[in-house]
Fold each of these.
Amino acid sequence: MSRIVYVNGEYVPEQEAKVSVFDRGFLMADAVYEVTSVLDGKLVDFDGHAKRLQRSMDALDMASPVTMDELLAIHRELITRNDLEEGGVYLQVTRGAPPDRDFAFPDPEQVPSGLVLFTFAKKLAQSAAAEKGIKVISIEDQRWGRRDIKTVQLLYPSMGKMMAKAAGADDAWMVEDGAVTEGTSNNAYIVKGNTIITRALSNDILAGITRAALLRFANEAQMKVEERNFTIDEAKSADEAFISSATTFVHPVVEVDGVQIGTGKPGSVAQRLREIYIEESRKAAV
Ligand code: PDD
């Protein structure tokens, strides 16, 4: 069965989906996106993703192509049409396709925003990475200064992934002024004793929707949370480390720059948070 995707108002088989060569997402990376996970055929934290999408669009003065209610309906329709049980929905809003290439933004009255969504199947609740943990390397953070906006400018994060692969690792943690910002496509955490440490929100990192839920669950479970900068050296001597995102939930980190973290096995705090996250997400999914 061929995947059904959504492109600018239409549901079409993926082979028939078309976007203009003048689309600003394609030419200028002038587009924002969201990835919402799906468990049991339902959306995890749709509200959080919809709010962050609105924030990204507002920050870039980009008009929303549909209302948030319509967006939810499109997500659900795609899940149904593709029979998706577990995985996610990728969504992208672009500033649309003006008649020609131009650095200036087009008038939104004349050029409507573009909207593309597609589903992907992925095992989320059970994964080898969750059981074994992942290895990360550190790299310099060379991205632009508004990482709080979820744009499709993903070239440097892709390069980071390739650097990690070349080093025999799974992902890269980016470092700026001596402190870890985040992973290539996830938020980064270390654990010392009973305290979870993760960088505070600012323009330097993406405000992860999974991060927000995890910090809430951690507080409810009486775990201590410190939102502050940490260094790679601190990570190397931490008891545990982990990452979070919509496509990984929580993955323990067992090695940083070749140095084993804690026992070298997934830590109990990361495992517990992952379990709570999956349980609570299943309950609240829509
Ligand atoms: N990435 N930081 C960055 C740079 C990210 O790209 C992501 C998500 C996160 C975690 O955010 P959330 O918990 O809302 O997924 C943090 C998505 C999954 C992606 O690019 O595929």
Amino acid sequence: MTDSKQGRGKTDGNPAAGKLCQRSPTDCHFREYNYILRLSKAERTLLDSYRAVLVAGTSGFAEVFYNYLFDNPAIAEVLYAYERDGGDVGLLARSELQHLLQCLEACNDGVREEQLLEAGRLHVARGFRQSWIIGAYDLLLEYLNTLLPTLDIPGPHAVELDSLLPRILLRDLGVTLEGYWEQTQEETQEELAYIAARLGEAEDMLSGVPHYMWSVDILKNTVIYANFPLQSLYGGKLESPFPGIEDTCVDDRQQLLTAWQNAVSGNTCQVEVRMSLADSETHWYRISLYPSINRQGRTRTVHCLLEDINHQINERIQLQQLATTDRLTGLPNRALWTDHLNMALAASRRAPGSSVVVISLDINQFKMYNDTLGHDVGDVLLRDVAERLNSIVRESDSLSRLGGDQFGILLQPVNNVREATERVITKVLDAFDIPFSHKDKQLCVSLTLGIACFPDDGVSEEILLTNAESAMQRAKRNGLPYQYFDPVNDVSSVQQLHYSGQMRVALENDEFELHYQPQVNLQTSQITGAEALLRWNHPGEGTVMPQRIIPVAEQLGMMTPITDWVLVTSLRQCRQWICNGSCIPVSVNVSARSFQNPRLPDKIKWALDEAGVSGDQLEIEITEATLMQDIDRATEIFARLSDLGVTIAIDDFGTGYSSLSYLKRLPIHTLKIDQSFVMDVAFDHQDIAIVRSIIELGHNLGYKVVAEGVENRMAWDLLVNLGCDTAQGFHISKPLPDERFCTLLAETGRLPG
Ligand code: C2E
Ligand code: MG
Ligand code: MG
């Protein structure tokens, strides 16, 4: 008998246990066996008279029996195990022998029967197999068969005994096996009672669980178990393998069916769906499906658990709302707005050419309202402002209270940025022309707005918001209703911090790159030069444009090494063009800070020598503003550059200072008309007038005039008519990486206008 069986039998306390040991008086095996085996009284009397002789003759059987026991490894193993458990093997073997031979002893039938049954039971308990017992009886029979002819028994009696002894042995064997059967039955019964008790407990427990549970036989597609709550819900009728599918909200059914298919394929699944069980109100339920897999790896059963999680979901929603909503105004708070902004940025990255606009709005004089009218009125005002803003912002755009009296508007990816932004700004400003009423007072409230756009003004949510705030602060300082972010005037400390470490290693890591934009002769359509324009291939942010690099680099003192790099790189490239057969100059922009560096001319000379190109292959572009910062110094530097043969261009001409006297004092070669006059020149009379004047001025002073920002054919034609010399702009080509620019040069000596 195994330990677990022993443990269970002893601890069970089940009234059914041990019942079969108490045999009924009618349960008499001997009588039946005597009858079946035709064991007559006369035969048994005959046995009595030869019993002593037979017993004496079997003394040698002990050795045969011991050999049988210990030569058979399986039996020997059981005996040794018995010994290991503290039993005495010798004693056990002797009692087995005695039990076997007792068929020859004079014994009351009832007592003998009980002994045999008990032996059978004990054999089960000790792990003796029935076949071994049969083997032992067979051995004894063979022994007696050999013994009988050697004994001094008269012939007829010997014949009778020869027939009787096998039947006596068969009877004993039979009754011993009855003992086996009774013991096995008893144990099975105990086992069943034990299982029934556990099942009852499990059922009690499952009925107490406030969830619905059921199991489905996959092959038969039927419910094979349903706990009490589920049975009560459906009145015991569980026709579908998925009770509740009909009660599931139509929108959620598909995910339930998908989960079911998944579970049938052997995967544990969980879904949350809305259901109105037995026509009750709709609640959220969590359905967990646990497949049970058979040995062949197929799902045999799926166990299902259905829990009402309405309360949890509602709490989750409430928590989410609390965490993402501004309590006072009910608008999304900064955290949620930041999420929206990040999503919009991701969408815009997937749609090249689109933009995201971040508008920071601040209530003017809010502190005054708060201090003079009290905080309650301040709160009402904030709510009113939120409501008014909400009424004008489209649903797809996102309005938030970012904190204090600051609000934020996020315009989802738009293609025509300026136009869309101006429309919103106008709507906001117009909406605040109407005063707010509080009690009997009229409160005139105005806002100041700052605007930053992705990707031009920043690529991260943090920088965009900081830049929009910087623009708003500048607007406040200048008393303006709104301002767009301007990298020169609004370089934020955050942006500096953001790039400070990275910019230093960017040069070493070769992250900077130059793109070249062709300059084309308006009469011949031939490429006559190229402007080198800086790009930063930022490892995390992609391409960073110069408007965002230059101001920060200036603040960080990084402009000098960057200018050096631009000079060397662009001149080497120019050398390459010459080698390829195109002798065109390159134009390099020099920032204010670099221009102030007294060593600039030396560096330019070194770079020209290093690249092996002459000075007339280089044009330096300086903005008017830079020039005017220190006109005396500019005069000196220009003289040295002229000595090297380097030409000078005034960049963004027309946007700087009004004094033009410097033009006649300095050795200038080129005027580059700022693109703001050129882009719409075909449609704007004032722009035409300005462009015409600049061309005339430049020509009168003997300069070449370049028009920047030529974006369309009409502008090109107009500039041809106005006699402008050179054009640069997207209509001709965008700035190109060096390889593509080389290809362009090789393919098109002439570019069509
Ligand atoms: P910029 O010197 O006036 O250069 C022309 C800018 O106008 C370039 O912008 C160019 O891509 C853009 N552009 C050219 N054609 C068109 C057009 O048809 N339409 C429009 N909308 N834009 C056009 P980018 O490359 O972003 O450079 C901006 C400014 O950054 C440059 O203005 C220049 O002032 C500065 N910059 C660029 N590279 C360098 C550099 O290596 N060093 C310094 N100090 N400044 C640089
Ligand atoms: Mg330029
Ligand atoms: Mg320019």
